[in-house]
Design brief:
1 helix, alpha+beta, 39% strand, elongated, 67 residues
Length: 67
């Protein structure tokens, strides 16, 4: 599920729930933990943003020029 974390002002995907915390991640490998009350469901725009970040990261890892 794609969510927006108000505390870090970032879009991420939920990996796990641990008590009052949510473990979040991004396609770049960044992971962080936040309180579940500070996240909300992502909008369609934020879902596209997360997909674009993942696509850009894949291109950069291949060593190809950016689109």
């Amino acid at each position: 599920m794609v969510v927006y974390d108000r505390r870090y002002e970032m879009v991420g995907a939920i990996d796990d729930f641990v008590g009052p915390f949510v473990n979040l991640s991004r396609p770049t490998g960044l992971t962080w933990q936040s309180r579940w009350v500070s996240v909300r469901q992502g909008t369609p725009h934020e879902l596209r943003q997360l997909k674009a970040i993942g696509a850009l990261h894949r291109v950069q890892r291949k060593g190809l020029p950016r689109p």
